[in-house]
Amino acid sequence: CADCRSGQATWASVNLGVLVCIDCSGVHRSLGTHVSSVKSVTLDSWRPEWVERVRQVGNNRANLFFELRVPPKYLPLQARRSASRLDRDRWIKLKYVRRRFAPSSSAPHELLTQGLALPESYEAPEPGASDEEEDVLPEGAGSPQRSDQEAASRPAAAASAGGLGGGGKTSSSWALPFAPPAGFGASGGSGDGSSLLDSATASLGEAQRRGTEAAAAAQRRGSEAAAAAWEQMPSRKDLAGGFKSAKKSLSGTFSSGTGSGGYPGGGSL
Fold first, then answer.
1. pTM here?
2. pLDDT (0 to 100) of residue 61
3. Angle at CA 259, nearest 5°, toward 258 and 261?
4. Is the per-residue pLDDT at 221 higher than 70?
5. pLDDT per position as a tens digit, 140-157
6. Greater confidence, 85 or 243?
7. CA–CA separation, 201 and 250 (whole Å)
8. What is the DSSP string of the chain?
């Protein structure tokens, strides 16, 4: 991946000419197509110009420009850029939107659009006054969110560390299929794992009960509809009587119409 270096590059920014992982591709999509146009390497049908753009630029040439000089204050962010969605988001926006690490000249994809050749090197940007300052999280940015891969590994890690069964309190952003009990996770409240599991068990039991009742009601309505339809069916006696009546009527019609050797209605062959 051109941005985090850790994910499998199965997506691409076809205008920037770089390959990225699925986590970084989500951030690229949020930048807008005027900054980064994202396509799947395996799911989308590629145009020849997209293939040529990625071939001409590629991750190394793009990073030679977009990551030319990373100020010391951003080195910790660079090291942990794949650890959380928040850090990944900040790094990619600093890299492509603000171009904080790039020179003031045109980017590789912009040079190709102008019909110019890509240089072997770029002039490093001038150091900024805030380069040595501490990297402070922007106000209102919120708390870091786990990446998809890290979120998937959290249940196993929580279990090995004591997790729900150990009685410890661990903050979590998991989407629960039920409402946690009141006061869960609060200081001094009933925030142990047993109360959470009890709530889960009760919620699942209620869902199972409702499902059973719904299935029984549907079966009952189906039986009633079948019974009503069966009542409308004629009996065997009615069917036999109708058949005899129709046979008699047809016999009379043919008898009256063939008295002169012709066919019903007086016609002849």
1. 0.52
2. 96
3. 60
4. yes
5. 554 444 444 444 444 444
6. 85
7. 72
8. -TTTSSS---EEETTTTEEE-HHHHHHHHHT-TTT--EEETTTSPPPHHHHHHHHHSHHHHHHHHHTS---GGGHHHHHTTTTBHHHHHHHHIIIIIS-TTS-SS--HHHHHHTTPPPPS--PPPPPPTTTTS--PPPTT--S--B-HHHHHHHHHHHHHTTTTTTT---------SSPPPTTTTSTTSS-SHHHHHHHHHHHHHHHHHHHHHHHHHHHHHHHHHHHHHHHTSPPHHHHHHHHHHHHHHHHHHHHHHSTTSSBTTTB--
**The two three-digit tokens of residue 212, written as one number:** 């059973």
Most confidently modeled of 101-115, 199-213, 216-230, 253-267? Answer: 101-115
Residues, the chain, total?
Answer: 269
Q: How many CA atoms lie within 13 A of 4 on its CB side?
A: 26
Strand partners, 19: 12
Of 131-135, 181-185, 247-251, the range with the lowest mean pLDDT is 181-185
Burial tier of 213 (Cβ tally within 10 Å: 0-12, 13-18, 19+):
exposed
Structure tokens at 56: 């001409």
Residue 176: name the closest of 207, 203, 148 by CA. Answer: 203
According to DSSP, the residues that pair with 84 across neighbouring strands are: 146
Burial code of 218-250, b = ≥16 C-beta within 10 A, e = fewer? eeeeeeeeeeeeeeeeeeeeeeeeeeeeeeeee
* Winning range, highest mean pLDDT, from 132-141, 172-181, 195-204, 234-243: 234-243
Q: How high is the mean pLDDT of the chain?
A: 76
